[in-house]
Specification:
single chain, 4-stranded parallel β-sheet, alpha/beta, 35% helix, 86 residues, 24% strand
Length: 86
Amino acid sequence: MDRKILIVDDEADIRDILQFNLENAGFNVECASSAEDALEMLSDRHSLILLDVMMHGMSGFQMATLLRERGNLTPIIFLTAKDTQD
């Protein structure tokens, strides 16, 4: 089965670094530059979502909420550059 990791980040440099390292570790990776693009790409072949919290347009938290409301239980790891907790 072809399982993939979906990287969702609006910063190309971060996407590229993550994709490079994960592919070198043997993972299949797809990338999206926005939550909106990711929602169109997401399928049952994705086994993990690496999701940026702060993006232009829909935030990572908003995307995660929407996915859960739709019944999508794909595991999510949030990425953030924040240095404090709200």
